Amino acid sequence: MFRPMRLGAQALTNEECEAVLRRGRAGVLAVLGDEGYPYAVPVNYVYAEGKLFLHGAKEGHKMDALRRCDRASFCVVDEDTVVPEAYTTSYRSVILFGRARTIEDREELVRRLDGFAAHFVKDGPEARRAYIDRYLDAVAMVEITPEHVTGKEDEMRRRKQT
């Protein structure tokens, strides 16, 4: 169902892919948009318990697309450094393919939003909860369960590590 990586020697291990996803804070979500056009949107995210979590408004292009089709892909660029003397870049990235669901249960939504907020801000749980309560009725939280994850880094990085 999923294509094998063309340059397999540059593939990250599952553990390396998970480390990139845990480290990251932003990526690009790609979904099937309006009239069959791809729709890719940069979003903040949290990777926890083997799943990807992102949030946004309850209405809009992203949520409409996910309601129509639960398949999504997500890309995180962990490293992207120009190496001018070699006419190349040093890079590391991960692409995740999975199924999305909107978290509907209010308790689960609050718990996931709190985990999300804790990933980005250093406020204590009381301050986070006050903020969450203020916006809870307007926010959606999406959980993406991975079906396939691949990662890749440039050949120079791979050679340095072996």
Order of helices and strands: HEEEEHEEHHEH
Mean pLDDT: 92
Give unreliable regions as ranges.
none
Estimate the strand proportion. 35-45%
The SS-based structural class is alpha+beta
Distance between the termini: 31 Å
- Quaternary structure: single chain
Number of strands: 7
User: How many alpha or pi helices?
Assistant: 5
Shape: globular
Helicity range: 25-40%
Radius of gyration: 17 Å
- The strands making up the biggest β-sheet line up spatially as 2-1-5-6-7-4-3
Q: Give the biggest sheet.
A: 7 strands, antiparallel
Helices, strands, pairings?
Elements: H1 14-23, E1 26-32, E2 38-44, E3 46-48, E4 51-57, H2 61-68, E5 71-83, E6 88-102, H3 106-120, H4 125-135, E7 139-153, H5 155-161
Antiparallel strand pairs: 1-2, 1-5, 3-4, 4-7, 5-6, 6-7
Helix pairs in contact: 3-4
Structure commentary:
By secondary structure, this protein is of the alpha+beta class. The protein has 5 helices and 7 strands, in the order H-E-E-E-E-H-E-E-H-H-E-H. The chain is globular and about 50 Å long.
Observed structural traits:
162 residues; alpha+beta; 7-stranded antiparallel beta sheet
Short description:
It contains five helices and seven strands.
